[in-house]
Amino acid sequence: MDNTLPRSKRPFRTFLLFLYVFSTVIYLYLILDGWSYYTTPMLQRPHHEAYRIFKPGGIRGHGYGIIGSAMMLVMLLYSARKRIRKFPRLGSISKWLDMHIYFGIFGPLLVILHSTLKIHGLVAVSFYSMIAVALSGILGRYLYLQIPRNIHGHELSLKEISETRRRLTDDLVSNFGLDEEMIRQLKLVTVSKKPARKNALLFLIGLLVDDFQTRVSLRKFKREYVARQNLPLAQLKRMLSLTREKAMLERRVLILHRVQQLFHYWHVIHKPFAIIMILIMFVHVIVAVTFGYTWVF
After folding, report:
1. Which of 17, 212, 4, 27 is closest to 98 using CA atoms?
2. pLDDT of residue 4
3. CA–CA dist 105, 107 (Å, integer)
4. Average pLDDT over residues 21-25
5. d(C-alpha 19, C-alpha 13), whole Å
6. In this structure, how many other beta carbons lie within 10 angstroms of the beta carbon of residue 261?
7. Does residue 77 contact residue 91 with C-beta atoms inside 8 Å?
8. Which of 52-66, 175-189, 246-260 has the highest mean pLDDT?
9. Dist. CA 172–CA 189, nearest whole Å
10. Pseudo-torsion of CA 96, 102, 104, 105, nearest 10°?
11. What ranges in the chain are assigned the alpha helix state H?
């Protein structure tokens, strides 16, 4: 197994960035296009000229619900992919997670347009569960990134982490001339910022603050190195990439045990909301179809 951490995901990251920007632009257009209807008081909406289009059972309102629900179902494929480790050709788990998050953001956003914020009864439980799943997913992604993983997205063992640390150190020393003093300074960038708070919320806040401070210290370290070395641009970029990789790995090792605990508790909270959301969504769809709401079919 290749235990190295991913060094470049530029093509996929570029695609993902485009997908988010494109989807955001389209979503903003949909909001602006229906702004007159969405800002009309609930009791007056049936008299709005676009009521038959934007209402939850309308041609567009219903379409938003169908597409948003479909996206949330596609989102569940990530859970299946995590359990199929024998098929790496299906893509790395980290990429599946990125797509899982994308569908987990824009699926609920479309469902919000579908509901036009007219939420009541059993559907309200599913709706607010959906919001909880989407918001907690952002936290889950952050915690996921704090756990050292290989290029396929699988969590590294302690032995693999040790081997990766040694490989990065040897590479920086032998290929880019980092002396013992600079290696020591690089380690201090992370060692001096170990969140030790017992309270989970304070730990998370401290983690975010320390993450920001670590990145600031790392940029300072890079500037000092660039001032001392004269390397071609390609080599300099490679060195800076390795430096960041090593610094972030060292930091993640320091907080590994606590983050693993929080990630476990996050799963305990995240999954029930997801299950409730999906079950009630199915009930909602079955009831809608039973009463003849079949969109354009």
Report:
1. 17
2. 40
3. 6
4. 96
5. 10
6. 12
7. no
8. 52-66
9. 16
10. 160
11. 10-33, 35-38, 51-54, 59-75, 77-82, 93-115, 122-145, 158-176, 180-191, 200-228, 233-254, 256-290
Which residues partner with 149 through β-bridges? 155
Percent of the chain beyond pLDDT 90?
19
Helix, coil or strand: residue 155: strand
Q: Quick one: which of 106, 66, 50 has its CA closest to 289?
A: 66
| Residue 297 in tokens | 């079919």
Q: How far apart are CA 141 and CA 183, in angstroms?
A: 30
pTM of this structure = 0.70
CA distances from 216 to 168, 247, 279 (A): 21, 12, 45
For 3, 14, 15, 35, 224, the CA distances from 22, given in Å and listed in that order, are: 34, 12, 10, 20, 39
Residue 84 has φ and ψ, to the nearest 5°, of -115, 70
With contact defined as beta carbons under 8 Å apart, do 182 and 220 qualify? no
Q: How confident is the model at residue 87 (pLDDT cuts 50, 70, 90)?
A: low
Contact 103, 78 (CB under 8 A): no
Residue from 161, 139, 121 nearest 208 by CA: 139
In this structure, what are the phi and psi dihedrals at residue 155, rounded to the nearest 5 degrees? -65, 135
| Sequential DSSP letters for 21-63 | HHHHHHHHHHHHHTHHHHTS-GGGGGGSTTHHHHSTTSHHHHH
Q: What are 142's two structure tokens?
A: 């952050």
